[in-house]
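WP5 quarterly update. Target: REPAT31 protein. Source organism: Heliothis virescens. Length: 88 aa.
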Amino acid sequence: MIIGDTVHRKMVFHQRVKDFAIPFKKRVQTLTYTDPEKRTIKGVAAIDNDFSHASANITDGGVGYSYVTVRMKSQRHHPLNFEVEIYV
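Structure tokens (predicted):
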């Protein structure tokens, strides 16, 4: 998932989100970022490193705000492995 503009923007946050697989279960993680300088977020990228058809959604804030909450969910039986990047 890439929302907004990430080209030629300053990356202010980068984090890898990983969680192991559990048989018959989906893994769900939530990541919240608030910019300490209250800068407006211009882009959010959440990339599935395993190409496992996992999903990522912005549940609060995002582009145009100074904070964002990203919810990531794996496919059943698969681990969660995302790279989350925030650009201003």
